[in-house]
Specification:
The two termini are 18 Å apart. This protein has one domain: Rubrerythrin, domain 2, CATH 2.20.28.120. With 48 residues, it is mostly beta strands. The protein has a four-stranded antiparallel beta sheet, with no helix packed on it. A hairpin with a 5-residue loop joins strand 1 and strand 2.
Length: 48
Amino acid sequence: MRKKVALACTECNQRNYTTEKTAQTSERIEIKKFCKRCGRHTLHRETK
């Protein structure tokens, strides 16, 4: 079963993206993506 999660920019804390991950994974996802607010690629982390 897959679980929907939101990704937030670590620089400005804006929630820009949503993605899915397996429900069994307890680790938080960290992906480098483009932030529209910052105007550059930044690290995005999974939020609660």
